Amino acid sequence: MSAHRLAPLVRLRLRLTVWYVAVFTLILVLLGGGVFLAVRRQLSLQLDGSLRNAVAAIQQATRTREVERAQASGPVVDAVAELRIPDRDLYLFDANARPIIPAQAAPWIQSAARLAGRAGSANVDFDTPEDRQIRLHAERFTGGNGDVYVGAAVADRLELEDRYASLIGVFAAAALAALLLVAGGGYILVRQSTAPIERSMDQMRRFMADAAHELRTPITILRTRVEVALGQAREADADAATLHAVEREAERLGAVVGDLLTLARADAGERPVTQEAVYLDDLAADAVEAIRTVADRHQVTVRIGSFDEARITGDHTLIRRLLLILLDNAVKFTPAGGRVEVDVRASDGRRSVTITDTGPGIPPETLPHVFERFFRGERARQETEGAGLGLAIARWISDLHGAAIELHSTPGTGTRVTVSFSQSV
Asked: What is the pLDDT of residue 306?
């Protein structure tokens, strides 16, 4: 296929790949954003939980401090002052939000303590001049001797930002790797999915070229005959010969157009198919009788071998046409004095018809292509007429009935074609 022909398909593949990657990227962004928000919320809840635990530790240490001060007669270790929690700043205030431990506190922390003293608890975020965000949790509580206190714990949100950054970095790296894999894998998948389109385009181009070739030949002959006849004086014998030639070419042209129309309707699924009980042996006998005239003209003997009663379900007209196509090919490719034999068998739920000829056979390299449209082997082009559509129609009819066509051929010995129907009634 030329580069010019490939260009639209390549653009289609690239466009589909870009869309594939874009959709996947959108999914990653939405999923990543959702995960990030969920993790951020979870980390914030964990931070608040750790601050509440720190305030609970302050409450316990405060009650211990009260007990030790009440029982001791001299200086004692201050349990609150000795309390240490990593990465947490701890504060103890009295009921009026005056700092107890440590002796001083920033104004915004005292303000949060007053708020907690009035409301019972407070959560405050504070941005420092150094662009750091601080999270504070404060709670009011009553000591063992009835005094009211406010405990506060402060943490730097920087530890959350570090976790966010780490999370974003890992996710971005994973997303980039996933996008690269998706781009590569997507292109491969698109290439695989467009392969049938490419084959269809090739078949369509070949079909159009072959159809134009097959139609051009009889049209050229018709035009030439008519032009020659118009240029000559009118003679009854010459005019009759010309008209007979025109008739033959018109008949050939009509046959090609009819076959093309059949295949076009087959591709479009427009050909209605009746499902009725028919007998394969009766159809085969009818087809044999119909082909005898052609066989006699070619001096080929057509005979019936084994003939079992074989009842199947299908379209009477189409199955008869299938058998006529196969018989016609067998007769045309069998030399004078040769033989074509038809067998109908019914066994193990299968119904089959086998057509065997004593022709020259089909070369192995040609065998896989015989059912392709417009395909004609070298011998067929030299010795027989036709457009190479008959076996394509036969394949369509067999596929339509769920039947299988098996073709076996040995060069110099002959060809055997078997059509097997699994349907029976």
From this structure: 85
* pLDDT value for 22: 85
Neighbouring CB atoms inside 10 A of 113's CB total 30
Q: How far is CA 292 from CA 139, 288, 300, 301, 374, in A?
A: 109, 6, 9, 8, 26
Alpha helices per DSSP H over 269-387: 280-297, 316-332, 378-383
DSSP helix/strand/coil, 250: helix
Give the three-class secondary structure for 343. strand
Low-confidence ranges of the chain (pLDDT < 50): 1-4, 380-384, 425
With 0-12 CB in 10 A as exposed, 13-18 as middle and 19+ as buried, what is 415?
buried
What three-state secondary structure class fits 351?
strand
Joined tokens for residue 371: 């059912």
Q: Give the pLDDT confidence of 209-253 residue by residue, as tens digits.
A: 666 655 666 677 677 767 777 777 777 776 677 777 777 667 666
Question: 91 in helix, strand or coil?
Answer: strand
Name the region of 66 (left: φ>0; alpha: ψ -120 to 50; beta: rest): alpha
The backbone torsions φ and ψ at residue 309, rounded to the nearest 5 degrees and listed phi first, read -70, 125
DSSP per-residue codes, 375-421: ---HHHHHH----S-HHHHHHHHHHHTT-EEEEEEETTTEEEEEEEE
Sheet hosting strand 414-421, strand order edge to edge:
301-307, 339-347, 350-357, 414-421, 404-410
Parallel/antiparallel/unpaired status of strands 301-307 and 339-347: parallel
Looking at residue 17, its pLDDT comes to: 81
pLDDT at residue 150, as a whole number: 93
| Position 291, amino acid | I
The confidence score (pLDDT) of residue 90 equals: 92
pLDDT for 74 equals 56
Q: How far apart are CA 60 and CA 25, in angstroms?
A: 51
